[in-house]
Amino acid sequence: MRFSRYLIRRILQLLPVILVVIVLNFVLLHLAPGDAALRLAGEDPNPAVLEAIRERYGLDLPLHQQLWIYLGRVARGDLGESLMARRSVIGIIGDRAGATILLAVTSLFLGSTLGIFLGTLLSARAGSRIDISSSVTAVVGYSIPVFWLGIMLILFFSIRLQWFPVSGMFTILGPRTGIPRLLDVGHHLILPVLTLMVASTAQYLRLARTSVLQVLNEDFIMTLKAVGFSRRAVLVKYALRNAALPIVSMLGLQLGIVLTGAVLTETVFSWPGLGRLVYEGIMNRDTPVIMGAFIIMSIAVALASLLTDLVYAALDPRVKY
């Protein structure tokens, strides 16, 4: 009962956040330069045709009326229709979401796992040369722009060495089913995942190192060492477990960072996901598509934050629902 009340309360707290995100995105997109009606009508359009397009899509209404109508549609689960593709935005997002989930989950899992592993090892060698050099490398890795790193990886591994495809998710004339298809997707996935992994690995490395090092200085760790526990058992079973809370807290925030980086990464690698969809929507001034993608991403980040809170409470008995 206590958990159910906590869960309902947290979900209700997320609703205003999502509403504010929708309103801000809607207002900013409609105040940005450009006219979707002109994009639809083509070059040198007839004024009557231009006015008819604005009237059909409600672009002739005041901004507050457009916002109110849009919020009503979203409340009913309707994200509108793409201005360019003339398809349901939900259908378009459904076609693209799988690619983004594959890219984001793979990069986040591998980046966090590698970062936590390296950070835990470095905490046992705090102050050594390898610790200092690794920390500096992590700062550099976290600071590298995602789009620049993606371009450099393409130039070196795809163009110079020709080890990986330049772009896309599939080989055009490649296998369509079975294990060969999965291998083809995996081959295309390596460079985009590596691009997103660099920042998350660096962040988790620094966080894990700091958290585990702090726990290693606690009195109970000294006691475990004194009674004869092995260094590995102390480090993995006790230090890392007690340092897990700040690491878990980072997962919810990291998903938002990964999704933001996915927009640039998918654009660089022409990966057919939500990030690429946002880029195409911006280039085509397709406001319903942009808004729909932003809403889905916002909900994903909000749910990840909720899940992080639940896991945090499960790991730490001092946290009460």
Any overview of this molecule?
- This protein is mostly helical and 321 residues long.
- It folds into two domains: 2-75, no CATH class; 96-315, Orthogonal Bundle (MetI-like fold).
- Helix content is 78%, strand content 0%.
- The protein is built from 13 helices and no strands.
- It has helices at residues 2-31, 36-41, 47-56, 63-75, 89-123, 129-143, 146-160, 178-216, 219-226, 231-242, 244-269, 274-284, 287-315.
- Helix 6 (129-143) packs across helix 8.
- The termini are close together.
- The model has no long low-confidence stretch (mean pLDDT 79).
Count of alpha/pi helices: 13
CATH T-level fold name of the largest domain: MetI-like fold
Largest sheet descriptor: none
**How do the SSEs run, as a string of H and E?**
HHHHHHHHHHHHH
Rg (C-alpha, Å): 24 Å
Under CATH, the homologous superfamily of the largest domain reads MetI-like
Q: How confident overall, as mean pLDDT? A: 79
Percent in strands: under 5%
Shape: globular
Distance between the termini: 10 Å
Structural class: mainly alpha
Pick out the low-confidence regions.
Answer: none
CATH architecture of the largest domain: Orthogonal Bundle
Which CATH first-tier class of the largest domain would you pick?
A: Mainly Alpha
- Report the helical percentage: over 70%
Q: Total strand count, please?
A: 0
Structural domain count: 2
What is the assembly state of the chains in this entry?
A: single chain
